[in-house]
Amino acid sequence: MRVKFPQRINVAVLPFGNLMRINSSIDGKLKFSGVEGKILNAVLNSLGFQYDFTVPKDMQWGRLEPDGNWSGMVGMIQRDEADLAFSYLSLTEERSKVIGFSNPYAFDEHTFISKIPKNRKSTLTFLHPFDQSTWICLFLTLVLMSTVLTMFRNGICSFSAHFFKLFASLLRQAINTGNVSRKFNLLGTVWFLFAQVIVLSYSSTLLSFLIQPLKETSVRNFNELSKAVQRGNCQANFSNFTLSYLLNSKMEHLKKLGEIVSGNSWVANTSALSPETAIQPNFFLALNKNVAKSYFGTRNDVYFSEDRLYASYLAFGYNKHFCCITKLNAIISRISQAGLYGKLLRDSSVKLFLKTSKGSANSETESRLSLDDLISAHALLVAGSSFSFFILLAEIVYSKIISI
């Protein structure tokens, strides 16, 4: 029995920010652009039908309503108002009960973005190259070595004298050990090698901090985001679909996060995003990673979390009576194997970078070394000079008292 192919098919489409732009031509036909728009054009041209396009009135992808019906594009297919649905439509188990899905053409993760923290300002920056445990171990090693050297000299030289001599070697000061035993010289050589490694390691690390200063502590995953929101330190916006996922999660921190977001009506409006959208401090926006890359991929003031809330496949939705499922899957498989979606996404990011000068301007200003970055070095210099000056005065006064 030959399958009768339709002359025209109806396709449900939905604009989706920078990835799927829908414009009307002079003759009233819809034109598609963006990464998703180019994928849609390629697939429909390969199928070879004539098409009518419909945008759902509720502007939704599709969610299950309390009455058992579906909204958005999924609902249109369920009611036989559309043969195909396309525009960043996630393949889910619930949706697959009422509509069919093609082979996936892309994979996406749901994450969040925020503003990159400011540079850490501290007068103790000179302590940052080593962590606390390293500084403690270094001090204990200094004390232990001073004690051992004092024992080798049989009390000829005091512990404090050895301590300050070894400390001076860490400051790259020359030390005159005098006429001492072979064991003492061997032990001193080991210490000087140790001091050289410590000094070089400290200097190189400190230089790297001056070139690229440390950042304030940032929220890196959804667990930390939940704690920050509970403390009232920040705001986190989620889409309606993701908010439902949070509220139904079995993880306590995600469920608590969803309750706070729902109570404050922090609903994300991705349609209002643009490459120049300002991301404020202590503000977090949850969205799909591909969307984030398309808008902010060239911005160096935006932090992309490596954590993911969930992952999903993107696919065409179709009416289960659709005639050309095999052909549709074959076309999408070729697109997926060729890596077309990834290439289009990278090309879009490059074009965005060329259109906006924000990224290059920010990188130029942030790479400069300012006086604020050297405040700890200046503070240490002033403190050391002041201390040395008072020591000098004390020695002068002491020598005057002795001479009387």
From TrEMBL:
Where is it found, in Gene Ontology cellular component terms?
plasma membrane
What molecular functions are annotated in GO for this chain? ligand-gated monoatomic ion channel activity; signaling receptor activity
UniProt xrefs under InterPro entries: Glu/Gly-bd, Insect_Ionotropic_Sensory_Rcpt, Iono_Glu_rcpt_met, Iontro_rcpt_C
Q: Does the keyword Phosphoprotein apply?
A: no
The answer to whether the entry has keyword Ion transport is yes
Keyword line: Cell membrane, Glycoprotein, Ion channel, Ion transport, Ligand-gated ion channel, Membrane, Receptor, Transmembrane, Transmembrane helix, Transport
Q: Which residues form the Ionotropic glutamate receptor C-terminal domain?
A: 8-259
UniProt: L-glutamate binding residues: S90, R95
Matching PANTHER family, A to Z?
Answer: IONOTROPIC RECEPTOR 20A-RELATED, IONOTROPIC RECEPTOR 60A
Name this polypeptide is given:
Ionotropic glutamate receptor L-glutamate and glycine-binding domain-containing protein
Source organism per UniProt? Araneus ventricosus
